[in-house]
Amino acid sequence: MKLSQLEVGETGIVKEFTDLEMSVKLMEMGCLPGEEVRISRIAPLGDPIAISVSGYQLSLRRFEASTIILQ
Amino acid sequence: MKADIRVALVGNPNTGKSTLFNILTGLNQKIGNFPGVTVDKKTGFCALPDGRTAEIIDLPGTYSIYPKSKDESIVFSVLADKSKGMVPDLVVVILDASNLKRNLLLYTQIADLKIPVVVALNMIDVSEKAGIKINIDLFAKKLGVPVVPISARKNTGIDKLKNAIAFANSVALQQDTIDIESLAPGIIAQIKGEMQVENPYVALQLAHQHETLSYLSTTESDRIEQLEQEHSFHSQKAQATETIARYNFINDLLYDTVTKPEAAHDETISNKIDKILTHKVFGFVIFFAILLFIFQAIFSWSAYPMSLIEDLFIWLQAGAAKVLPAGPLSSLIIDGVLAGLSGVLVFIPQIAILFALISILEDTGYMSRVTFMMDKVMRKVGLNGKSVVPLIGGFACAVPSIMSTRTIENWKDRMITIMVTPLVACSARLPVYTLLIALVVPNRNVWWVFNLQGLALTAMYVLSVFSAIIVAFVMKFILKARERGYFIMELPVYRMPRWKNVIFTMYDRSKTFVLQAGKVIIAVSVILWVLKSYGPGDRFARIDKQYAQPQYTKTMTPDSLTKVIASEKLENSYAGVFGHVIEPVIKPLGFDWKIGIALISSFAAREVFVGTMATIYSVEGDADKLQSVQEKMHEAKNPQTGQPVFTLAVAFSLMMFYAFAMQCASTVAVVYRETKDWRWPAAQFAYMTALAYTASFIVYHWLK
Question: Which residues cross the membrane (chain A) (predicted)?
Answer without folding.
Answer: none
